[in-house]
Amino acid sequence: MNAPVEQQLRQLPELDPPVDAWQRVRRVARRERWHARWRQFWPLVVAGGLTATAAVLVMAIVLVGAREPAVVAPSPEWIRVQAPAPELDRLQAQSRALETMLRGLPRRPELMRAENAAAITSLEDRIAELDWALSRSRARAGVADAEPAMWRERVGLMGQLVRARYTEAGVAAY
Amino acid sequence: MSGFANKSVPRDVLDRAQRGDMRAHAEIFRAFSRPVYTLAARMTGSTAVADDILQETFLEVIRSLGQFRAEASLATWVRRIAVSKSLMHLRSAWQRRATLFRDLGEAEATAIEPATPGEARAVQLNMDLERALARLPDVSRVVVLLYDVEGYSHAEIARQMGMSVSFSKSQLSRAHARLREMLGEQRAGGSDERAG
């Protein structure tokens, strides 16, 4: 031991950090930046999403609720009456508008409440049955008379489906 | 000599890092990672803990470099963060229960490969000193590293560690005596006093 201990301490060699140390620092730093940006922008994102879905819901209520006539149980007499073409056009336009709204909603979440999922599936099944019936009605004389009633029912079911999907999307956002 | 001495990065690297450029941060890491890791390993007595402190220190650098003003050198600023992180670790309850210095000697042995008998002797002396340092109580070890290696004054050490200047001086004196005793050094060499 030749040199004083203080001098020896100053001459101790440096240690090498692990080779992947920077990769780990960079990974965590990027994650922190992403979280920081999300914290900064999430109120805007959520507000925008809620505004858009609220607009969709309002449109759905206006179109379906305000214009939808009271559901009347079809009777043979009623079916025989030829619906005025403008009413059929109107119902089909409402149905197309609701289809557009439905496509505008977020994709379905992977996890969802069982009761919502069951209700949505039931509505989709009923709409599929109606679509099948509508496609047949064009090919069969007599059944075509029932088209306005089926379109009316389709518009009602589509409105319910839009509301159910909106509820599901709203729950998933939290 | 402190590993932070004479370490710096070009001004444009600092500017780019302050704007969030991660490649510039990588250059800062390359410049200062070894002294940060070395200081943390010797202060805490564990290379595993030093690895964590290295990461925490540079994450803090990335987060806070925007507020760094070049009145002090970047090396001084980075070292202050590393010292602060190491002291926080030493103050933690977990650390008070932990066994000290389990792996430092082994890590040092793999870091240096002697080529000549003279170098082998120097490495042996270094390892003896590392082990002796490792056996010091936490406070004494930190004081001796900050004073002898990093060049802190007693006033600065007292402020960092929340103790009095006289306590820092007495810890240093005891640490030197204990190190000499452990290293088998009979004579009392060097001075424990420096201005501040």
Order of SSEs of chain A: HHHHHH
Low-confidence stretches of chain A: 71-81
Please name the two chains that share the biggest interface, counting residues whose Cβ lies under 8 Å from a Cβ on the partner chain.
A-B, 26 and 46 residues
Strand content of chain B: under 5%
Summarize the biggest pleated sheet of chain B.
none
Output the number of helix runs of chain B.
Answer: 10
Q: What string gives the helices and strands of chain B in order?
A: HHHHHHHHHH
Name the average pLDDT of chain A: 76
What is the 3D form of chain B? globular
The CATH architecture assignment of the domain at 1-100 in chain B turns out to be: Orthogonal Bundle
Mean pLDDT across residues of chain B: 82
Query: Given the helix and strand composition of chain A, which structural class is it?
Result: mainly alpha
CATH topology term of the domain at 1-100 in chain B: Rna Polymerase Sigma Factor, Chain: A
% residues in beta strands of chain A: under 5%
Shape descriptor of chain A: rod-shaped
